[in-house]
Amino acid sequence: MLITLIAVFVIGYLLITLEHSIHINKTATALITGILCWTIYASAEANPEGVVEELSHHLGEIAEITFFLLGAMTIVELIDAHDGFSIITDRIASRNTRVLLWIISLLAFFLSALLDNLTTSIVMVSVTRKLIRNAEQRRTIAGMIIIAANAGGAWSPIGDVTTTMLWIGGQVTTLNIISQLLLPSLVCLLVPLTIQTFLFKAEQEAFVATATHGISRPYITPRQRRDRGIILLVGLLGLLFVPIFKTLTHLPPYTGILLVLGVIWVVSEIIHSDKDVEERKRFTAAYALSRIDASSILFFLGILLAVGSLQSTGVLTSLARALNDSVGNMDVIVLLIGVVSAVIDNVPIVAAAMGMYDLQTYPPDAKLWEFLAYCAGTGGSLLVIGSAAGVAVMGMEHLQFGWYLKRISWLALAGYVAGAGVYLLLY
Fold first, then answer.
1. What residues have CB less than 8 Å from 203, skipping those under 6 apart?
2. Contact indicator for 141, 128 with CB cutoff of 8 Å
């Protein structure tokens, strides 16, 4: 049974990594893999009721993550529907490439901690398109956005899905993960950012799309400006409130995010109450729900179900023992996990690690969990296909795998190693 189960999981995993080659959506593959793994497990057991109980237990944990992501993604979509992010991005104005590189990268770093690295990457690449006409400059800055967004998401409990998984699972706490990973994550960005700064020629200047260059921004009425300001303020303050809510009430994080979603939903209904149904439709939370990436949520569901079956059957525990026996050093193991996450999606890797190592041996805020959050979050930058942010930017700016490998990967590796070194020195 175990051999069949592992074979199905490995085949499913390979098909997920080959998504673009075989033209089969990874969500479909993940769902099939997850259900098949539990089917094999249930069929081989003499007591199927026990398997169902285990499945229900795992499903409860998975539901916490999926509901949290559902709420967070809807809030971000609602802010975007009101064009709220333009309040931040419209204030970027510089003709110097190096200055723009720093402004955009640092903004992506801190914005991804509040939103998430995928959304931040999309927003910042859209901004870069408006500001920079030179295609090569834009691609280079897009590569730095991937590094910045992934580094920024790693130190925040709501910034990267893997850190969120560890936070919801109780492996890390809010204040501790921020205090322990902020500096290493910042170093992970600053090292490649500094190197890239010197690679830009001094005479290169960016084209900034402003009214002075013959491109005028669309007119915004005072009411539209007020509405987008209100929604942005409520959304960002709400996202900041979620960790506070968890600390004060000890309720799971998804309850906090759903509360914030309810509040911003009400605010949106109030400020558009005088519009007719058709006019206010695109500003409603119901419309935002229709625009979220539901396939990503279903992908997490499928892959976490598959990993849960491996955990229940003891496969992950055996794998943990094998790694400890062969490698020995836990820091090296986690560093390797980060590198592997550049090739294979970091969500199942972190889910597997959570199943391999228990909270009794490694209690909340143990070095293992903090370092895992850093490595899994930032390791995806090593390849353009290594993170959701990278894949999104790859599609938007048509980044070639080879170009990224030659121009950005070595910078990302330098930052990854430097940040890891800072963490290990500070711990």
1. none
2. yes
- What amino acid is encoded at 100 in this protein? L
Domain, as residue range, for 264: 2-426
Partners of 96 in the beta sheet? 205
Q: Which of 302, 427, 301 is nearest to 367 (CA)?
A: 427
Query: Half-sphere exposure of 50 toward its Cβ, with a 13 Å CA cutoff?
Result: 8
User: Tens digit of pLDDT for each residue in 199-227?
Assistant: 876 544 555 554 434 444 566 778 888 88
Residues whose CB is less than 8 angstroms from the CB of residue 75 and which lie 6 or more positions away in sequence, other chains included: 235, 238, 239, 257, 260, 261, 264
| pLDDT, tens only, 335-345 | 988 888 887 66
Task: Give the separation between CA 292 and CA 302, rounded to whole angstroms.
Answer: 18
For the beta carbon of residue 213, count every other beta carbon within 10 angstroms. Answer: 11
Q: How many domains does the chain have?
A: 1
274-319 residue pLDDT tens:
888 888 888 888 888 888 878 878 887 888 888 888 888 888 777 7
